[in-house]
């Protein structure tokens, strides 16, 4: 019996041993082998880990930037301004053009409404003076500039009709204004004899001649047009001129002389009084009426010397005569001007000092030496 129980116990132990070995083998097979290729993290209950990427020895190529090409700008040409009036045109607008040019003394003939060669030359001259393209044709810029410098022409102006205005001085009038009128007429050679305060026959004849010379109605009476023209051509008379007195010396007084004019030989030129005084050692030897350059071409101010003289000079720049020229600053000179003699202060030079008394400037030319001082100033 005892032997029988021992045998049963041994058999049981053997069976248990076999079972343990089998379980171990089964577990090894389940957990120790590689996962089949078809297995997925979801089905296996595990999170998939991707193998690390092997570094590459070949650098990743970078894209070559495409160069930016700046297009060459197409050159542009300045368009030619559109012409409003050209040679060959005619009509009321041309008539107005001529009348406005006439106001500025760029057009001299009678107004005819025909854009002829004379009109084209006047337009080109006006343009060149104002630094506009001197085409001789009227574009908008030329027209605007011209209109800005002139007034609207009257019907009489457009049709070459001059009518006398109301009389402001006439025969029988007396007083200081008559005296001034006569003194101004003396300056431009239209009155001779003593200056008085009475408007008599001599004054009437002088005014008629002055008016007729300028195409004004020759009434012998002074209207506003006549007076304005006389004033444009003359300067304010001195008290000596108004009362027929000789100056204290032959040359004039020293009032207003620049201190630089009081020593040596000096052409002392005063812009305030439109006068030139020839001064030697502080004594005024001669006084002349002068006019100067325009705002666009002014006469230079300062201290200079006469650097050259030319008795019969002709301007190479403007092709105009400059008799008895005494140059003191580049192309600027003191010289006789027939335009000043004819038109007085109604105009200006290209920068020179104009003298209208030919006999006086001739005498002065012979007295002045190269190297003499020139002073141009405002008193």
UniProtKB/TrEMBL annotation:
Composition-biased stretches (Pro residues): 62-78
SUPFAM superfamilies given in the database record: L,D-transpeptidase catalytic domain-like, PGBD-like
Source superkingdom: Bacteria
Biased composition (Basic and acidic residues): 235-248
Domain (L,D-TPase catalytic): residue spans on this chain: 265-377
The protein's annotated pathway: Cell wall biogenesis; peptidoglycan biosynthesis
Ranges for region Disordered: 33-81, 235-257
Active site: 335 (proton donor/acceptor), 352 (nucleophile)
UniProt cross-references to Pfam families, sorted A to Z: PG_binding_1 (PF01471), YkuD (PF03734)
UniProt GO BP: cell wall organization; peptidoglycan-protein cross-linking; regulation of cell shape
Protein name (Swiss-Prot/TrEMBL): Peptidoglycan-binding (PGRP) domain of peptidoglycan hydrolases-containing protein
Record's keyword annotation contains Ligase: no
Protein's organism: Jiangella alba
Keyword set, alphabetical order: Cell shape, Cell wall biogenesis/degradation, Hydrolase, Peptidoglycan synthesis, Transferase
GO cellular component: extracellular region
A GO MF term: peptidoglycan L,D-transpeptidase activity
């Amino acid at each position: 019996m005892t032997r029988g129980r021992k045998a049963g116990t041994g058999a049981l132990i053997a069976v248990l041993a076999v079972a343990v070995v089998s379980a171990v083998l089964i577990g090894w097979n389940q957990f120790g082998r590689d996962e089949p290729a078809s297995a997925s993290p979801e089905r296996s209950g595990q999170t998939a880990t991707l193998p690390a990427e092997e570094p590459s020895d070949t650098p990743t190529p970078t894209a070559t930037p495409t160069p930016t090409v700046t297009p060459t700008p197409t050159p542009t040409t300045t368009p030619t301004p559109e012409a409003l009036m050209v040679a060959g045109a005619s009509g009321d607008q041309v008539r107005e053009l001529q009348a406005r040019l006439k106001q500025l003394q760029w057009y001299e003939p009678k107004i005819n409404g025909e854009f002829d060669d004379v009109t084209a030359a006047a337009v080109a001259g006006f343009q060149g003076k104002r630094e506009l393209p001197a085409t001789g044709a009227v574009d908008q810029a030329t027209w605007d500039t011209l209109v800005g410098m002139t007034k609207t022409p009257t019907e009489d102006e457009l049709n070459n009709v001059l009518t006398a205005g109301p009389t402001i001085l006439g025969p029988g009038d007396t007083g200081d204004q008559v005296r001034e009128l006569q003194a101004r007429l003396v300056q431009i050679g239209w009155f001779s004899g003593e200056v008085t305060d009475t408007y008599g026959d001599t004054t009437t004849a002088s005014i008629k001649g002055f008016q007729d010379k300028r195409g004004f109605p020759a009434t012998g009476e002074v209207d506003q047009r006549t007076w304005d023209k006389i004033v444009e051509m003359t300067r304010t008379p001195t008290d000596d001129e108004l009362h027929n007195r000789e100056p204290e010396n032959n040359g004039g007084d020293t009032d207003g002389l620049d201190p630089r004019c009081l020593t040596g030989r000096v052409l002392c030129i005063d812009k305030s009084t439109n006068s030139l005084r020839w001064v030697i050692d502080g004594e005024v030897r001669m006084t002349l009426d002068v006019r100067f350059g325009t705002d666009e071409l002014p006469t230079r101010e300062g201290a200079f010397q006469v650097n050259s003289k030319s008795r019969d000079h002709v301007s190479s720049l403007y092709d105009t005569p400059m008799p008895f020229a005494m140059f003191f600053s580049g192309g600027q000179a003191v010289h006789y001007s027939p335009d000043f003699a004819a038109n007085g202060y109604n105009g200006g030079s290209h920068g020179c000092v104009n003298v209208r008394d030919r006999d006086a400037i001739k005498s002065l030319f012979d007295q002045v030496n190269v190297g003499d001082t020139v002073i141009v100033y405002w008193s």
